[in-house]
Amino acid sequence: MTHPRLIALLLGCVTLLVFLPVGGFEFINFDDPDYVTANSHVIHGLTWRDITWAFTAFYASNWHPLTWISHMLDCQLFGLTPGAHHLVNAFGHALNAALLFTWLWRLTGKLWPAAIIAALFAWHPLHVESVAWVSERKDVLSTFFALLTLLAFTQYAQENNRRSFWLALVFFALGLLAKPMLVTLPCLLLLLDFWPLKRLTPFNRCVGLEKIPFFLLTTASCVVTFLAQKKGEAVVSLDRIPLSHRLANAPVAAMEYLQKLCVPANLSVIYPPRTLIPEWETLGSVGILTAISALAWQWRARRPYFLTGWLWFLGMLVPVIGLVQVGNQAMADRYSYFSAVGFFIMVVFLLEEVAERIRATNVMRTGVAITAGLGCIIITEHQLAFWRNSEILFRHAVTVTRDNSAAYVDLGAALGAQERWDEALTDDREALRLEPGWYQLHNNIANILDEHGQKNEAAAEYRQAIALAPRVSYLHKNLGMTLTELGQYDEAFRELSEASQLDPDDPSPHVETAKLFLAQGRDFDALTELRNAIDRQPRNTFLLAYTAHVLAANQNAAMRDGRTAQALALKALELGGTSVTIPDALGMAAAENGDYTNAIICAQNALAMAVTAGQKDTNAIRTRLELYQKHQPWRESFKMTNAPANAAQ
């Protein structure tokens, strides 16, 4: 094995070892449900239907089909075992470190500077977020294709290999399909033509022309991304955050990235947005950034690496610096994942030049490199521990930041998942104090009050949320569910109908309306409502299984239909449904048809799935299993209005 290959292998292995603890981490409640754990298109693994969805849907305010497919593949191979998903991220990051070293060595011919830059990229604490967060697979994956693009383009530029040019274009397209943040990569290719490729000359016109296909892909990606984020209402309007505020925030945010690259302290998964930026801070940031830029320009002939590295750092931040504001965050550690490479290039090559001028010995150079690497690893291991679960992560966020309403919300959700309702309510109310107009907070508080049995108080909170956001369908659905439990059927029906009109593709309001009818003894109307929902989403596995439940367990003998119930549940199973409702419905249908042997098997499967999923109340399934074993009537053990109602399953 050659020397560079051994270095690449060691870099990858050490990086994987550094991030090995993620194999024991959990999914977190921030984006992971949307990306994996509660995404019905992902959790079933790779299917043609879901791959088609990945390319056609603007889900979670994004369009990154390759990222969706990577998560589907994980689910296909590992199910919902969180450690495996985390380790895939860690392996991808280790591979990126090896690729970065390989590319820099081929590009510059400088072995040890390339190794040090790759090590800083691999072990810097600011990159923990991109690796330890399953939902940030898009960072690791897009950077993998970005590095392949750079490798292929470098081979094209050095050897005039046309095949490598088209490979670079393909890799760039794949990178954009993983995360559109790579839209400024064509500009980076021009920077590399300046240094170290030295192709950017007045006589080499093809340098600009050859980038046209790359810029065309960038334009297409920008349009699609803007449409996706606009549809998901993720793009913040100028009315809410004016252009003057964005222009003031951009240099401050760039300086904060620089600061955290140099001193990685108080890192947080969420940084609260700045409502007021002091003028002195903006002017000071502009002054420092201008001074570094002027120095880079002045050194462009003697130290061209400094200009390339500096513009790489700034240019890759442009899509996420806040000029087009997406979401509520002021900045995010993950945005530095690829842009930081430019910073490391300018610093490492500058230090190498200084070392040569002062004639530093190899022992001194090695000592500095080892100290920097070990320092990064120690801080990274410390930061990594905060990502173990949601509670630890968001408790750390509220500790190291101020007035972080979003962190309080997610901490409240983490505590609520553990049924620590009083603590969750305290955090949600603190978030509401910081941001009174946040309708989701009223919804969260209402959910907790509902769990506490405080139905009237919950209904009041839902109404406040609706007053703030009258066109959000799930608010009307939640209020309708609570009103159903309060016996206020007329108003509940109006709210559920409103939810159906606001989101016609969502079957859950139909399910809740069916439950309302069942509570009133209107079984025929309930079945009509469910069939209407199935017409809208004939492949919704939960909907099929719940309808099978209703048909198999109906108290009215004239309404029962065991054969149809069995057919619906089998169809849900065929479509890849994983809900406990499916084997439970099959068991009831078998018992209705007098086949107690299969009823017992299905009930045992349902019980095992419920226990594995952590379902707390399994008494009804256990009771039915015992009755099946005795060939006794079982219908009284099942109350249709209390069946689960997660139509996304």
Structural class: mainly alpha
Radius of gyration: 28 Å
Beta content:
under 5%
**What is the count of helical runs?**
31
Q: What form results from the Cα inertia axes?
A: elongated
Number of strands: 0
Stretches where pLDDT falls below 50 for ≥5 residues? 640-649
Q: How many domain units?
A: 2
Helicity level = 55-70%
Summarize the structure.
This protein is mostly helical and 649 residues long. It has two domains: 3-386, no CATH class; 522-649, Tetratricopeptide repeat domain (Serine Threonine Protein Phosphatase 5, Tetratricopeptide repeat), CATH 1.25.40.
Commentary on this structure:
The chain folds into 2 domains: 3-386, no CATH class; 522-649, Serine Threonine Protein Phosphatase 5, Tetratricopeptide repeat. It has helices spanning 3-18, 32-37, 48-56, 65-78, 82-108, 111-123, 128-132, 137-159, 162-178, 185-194, 206-209, 212-231, 243-262, 279-298, 304-317, 340-357, 362-384, 390-400, 405-417, 421-434, 439-451, 455-468, 473-485, 489-502, 508-519, 523-536, 541-553, 562-574, 581-592, 596-612, 619-629. The protein has 649 residues and is an all-alpha fold. It has 31 helices and no strands.
